[in-house]
Amino acid sequence: MEKLRRVVNEIAYTQDCAKLSTLNRSLLPVLKVVSSLYRVALYLRLYLYHFGLLSKHRLPVPVISVGNLTWGGNGKTPMVEFIAEWLADSEISPLILTRGYAGGDEARMLTRHLLGTPAKIGMGANRAATAACFLKQYGYIDPKSYLFEGVNQKVQSPLNLGQIGVVVLDDGMQHWSLHRDLEIVMVNGLSPWGNHQLIPLGPLREPLTALRRADVAVVHHANLVPEQSLKDIELMMQELKESLSIFFTRMSPLHFFEVGNINFRIPLDVIQDAIVLCVSAIGSANAFVQGIEKMGAFYVDRIDFTDHHSFQTKDYDRDPEILNHLSPFKVMALRSELQIIPRRQHTKDDFRELLKELLEVKWSGAKH
Q: Are 3 and 24 in contact (CB under 8 A)?
């Protein structure tokens, strides 16, 4: 199955089919048929929601969706963490709703990174039901108490920390059963659209016209992308939606930590002039490897697995114990965080202020 995933991924991100191997080209007819069936199912589902034959659940608090149009490597979960930290700093308790891929490794990572904040994390395929359980257990804050007085202002009482103020959907763009007030679309700057085909022939979950639903687009890994390519991505999105606000982000390495002691931080320069093997099962392994190379390693090799690969012996957030068996080699995990790249006067503060303004406009105009 892992080999098949690799082949499909190669096809999806190859612009010229003539460059594919004979074996890969032999799969194209099958992938085209399946992709056509997926398109029919996608439009049928959109039709049912559009005409109200499938209902959308509305929550009593604002919902921010962080999603994408392609599979993996777009920085959705780091952006969710970034937004949750901003809300927590404003003393607004966010509820993060995640589907729980690969046994919930992303949920465990978020739990670890947001430890000590009022953020809550709910995991499950039925996110409306999960949200209802958390709202019943913890209660919620009237959005008017902070939206129209300012998200950047402190909520009246620290006692409100237990009550939920905002819901953040991780990988929420195609989760149409839950109404959202703000749609953020993440785009992998290193490989934005692949061959422009729907899955499984290509990497697209929806046609690119779905960008018109977005309020904000974020080009991730922008620090690794040539300036002209960034301009091309920006122009393409603005042709679809001229008013779309576009920001740029990067993953900033913070430190390494030992697999047996996550509290023991190791400085990044520990790999200076060292031979490093990068092992990953993430959506954008190239960005990870390039980041390690920039830290000054003497030589970098890599073992890449597909995103959310189900290991027989697992990675750190699925099973930390396996990494203890790689002795005598020094085994470390990298801790990074998402950062907004200042570009054309679009800074971190501008991003936060825009989210606040959009939430105020959307919430004041909605029927509750």
A: no
